[in-house]
TOBE domain-containing protein (Halorussus aquaticus), 227 residues
Amino acid sequence: MDAGFEAHLRADGVEFDAADAELLGAVDEEGSLNAAADALGRSYSRAHQRLTALEDALGPLVARQRGGSGGGGSELTDEARDLLARFERLRAEFTGTAEVEETVLSGRVVSREGELATVETHAGRVRALAPAADEVQVAVRADAVTLNAPDDAPPEAATSARNRFAGTVAAIDAGEQVARVLVDVDADVPLAALVTMSSVEKLDLREGSAVVASFKATATRASPREV
């Protein structure tokens, strides 16, 4: 199992994400699932299947009315509106935290391949987008870091996340829906990651837990460092 930045709510094995929120919002605005699918450029069949799966896990989300002088239509249930409100609170908490959270690692460029450079840091080698400088600081956004249980971590060849570090959880700052997890990767500072509380529970994260932290080279930027 992994935990990344993408905001989602989970219930009975079904994840409610931004695409689902967009679908419900379109139903609310357009007045029917068919019109909502058209407005979003999605097939009605897939939209209907997705809505059915969501309702099986989360309860009634769309109330359908047939016939009548207005030709029928659909509207969101109170449960759906509560769900959208919860999701928006989660997304807002994610965004507000992610805007200020970065881990900065100091290092030296040891090789280059186009815009990407390999930087030697105390934690190990980091692939990052780097300027034409030898001494750099590498900034890793907390929302770009994915956490895996060691046994579930995919092999490096199977993922586009080029940077991988084994570490232990140093601290967990739990919010209502989102947690800030600090991982000791033998650097000068711990690596910060943002995950949902449901992911903390599924990964059974606690202080001292072993994890594998990974992040894409293209999501990691370096800047010149004065020495």
Observations:
- The domain at 2-98 is CATH 1.10.10.10 (Arc Repressor Mutant, subunit A).
- The chain has five helices and 15 strands.
